[in-house]
Amino acid sequence: MSEKQAKAKSTVPGPRTAAGADGAAGADGAAEGGPAETSRRGTWARLNPLLRLLILTQLAFNVGFFAVLPFLAEHLGTAIGMAGWMVGFVLGLRTFSQQGLFVVGGALADRYGVRPVVLVGCVLRIAGFAWLGYADADWSVIGSVLLIGFAAALFSPAVESEVARQAVVWEESGGGPRTSVLALFTVAGQAGAFVGPLIGALLLAVDFRVVCLAGAGVFVLVLAGHAWLLPQHIPGRERVGVKGGLGGLLRNRRFLALCCAYGAYLLAYNQLYLLLPDEVERATGSQTALAWLFGLSSLLVVTAQLPVTRWVAERLDLRRSMAVGLLLIAGGFLVVAVALPAGWTGNAGLLPAAGFVVLLTVGQMLVAPAARAWVPDLAVEGRLGLYTGAMSSVSGLIVLGGSAGAGALMDAGVSGVVPWAVLAVVPVGAILLLPRRSPARP
């Protein structure tokens, strides 16, 4: 195993409250009650306090972030008066400063630990949101957006890598498949992405500045909670130098293959924001139905992620789970590609788009937890943060290039079937890239 599991199996300190006693019954509690009791008790009830804190962190991060992000483009175009190309440039900068720099945040988490990196990231996110609320010039907007993105590049890899490491400890101590923990993490993030825009929409009736300050307020609460609850040092997490890990990572072919396969999944997922709106517009003449399709995706993840993960963990290893998920995603693109020549419109025309969303979301439920669960087995000892961040950075570059290619196909005047058919091939090809060996099903 890539991390020092002998140390990691020691009792993880819980938050510095009376909840520490609860942590002792976390991962080890599964062994006490036997299989019958384990099946009755939910995964959440058996997690140690640190894991609970990190999962709730993901929920809070997304509530604060998605309270602001969905309304940013319109604010830039109407209130600030930016040209369309400039709005796109600013949004691209935000993505690059976040996703592209995940590898930096991961390396810093390996060097300095989770706590300081998360706290600094929260401070920067608070400053970025507050700045954005008062920004009224192009340079000011760009500065605030870069700060918001870089903040996530700090705290997200730190949190994600520690959740992955703790999930391995959970699995090895008999708590259950590591994918169950990572599925909870996914559900928490999706729930935050669902609740955040609802809060933002309510506050937008007052002013966009209020929305930004509310987002900053969420991160003030996160900062205060983590300053109090997050341990100074987590047993089993060895600090290493910032330098020295990148060369080994670039020579790790199995890990890079996983990154490319995960990048193919993310490229497919991002078509919710590129191909899907275009298809909804074609079918109905507006994008009103898009919100309902996004809501369907979120609802599926929140309600079905844990049962699906539980079912898959009993039957498939990580490689097969990712392969099946990628096949489902490819099937979603094929549904639209096959239906397009019929030229259906209205409610009937939305059925292929709904089928795409359902298959894409179910595929996501299989791919995302499995990919995160696989990283600890491919990472070099002490470099889990670097590897977790690198997977996001590499896949982000794939999404950037792939989305540009998909957009070029849409602008090339070819049949509307072509982009959907081409992107159906991408997940199938990604299956061939998956490393040949994955950890055996526990």
TrEMBL record:
Instruction: Output the Gene Ontology cellular-component terms.
Output: plasma membrane
Comp. bias regions, Low complexity: 18-37
In alphabetical order, the GO MF annotations are:
transmembrane transporter activity
- Lineage top rank: taxon: Bacteria
Compartment(s) where it occurs, according to its Swiss-Prot or TrEMBL record: Cell membrane
Q: What InterPro entries does this protein's entry cite? A: MFS, MFS_dom, MFS_trans_sf, MFS_Transporters
Please name the CDD domains in this protein's record. Answer: MFS_MdtH_MDR_like (cd17329)
- Spell out the residue ranges making up region: Disordered: 1-40
Q: Where are the transmembrane segments?
A: 50-73, 79-96, 117-135, 141-159, 180-202, 208-230, 255-276, 288-312, 324-344, 350-372, 384-405, 417-434
Q: State the UniProt keywords alphabetically.
A: Cell membrane, Membrane, Transmembrane, Transmembrane helix, Transport
- Membrane disposition: Multi-pass membrane protein
Q: Say where the protein is mainly found.
A: membrane
Residue intervals of the Major facilitator superfamily (MFS) profile domain: 50-439
This chain belongs to the protein called MFS transporter
Q: What is the lineage of its organism?
A: Bacteria, Bacillati, Actinomycetota, Actinomycetes, Kitasatosporales
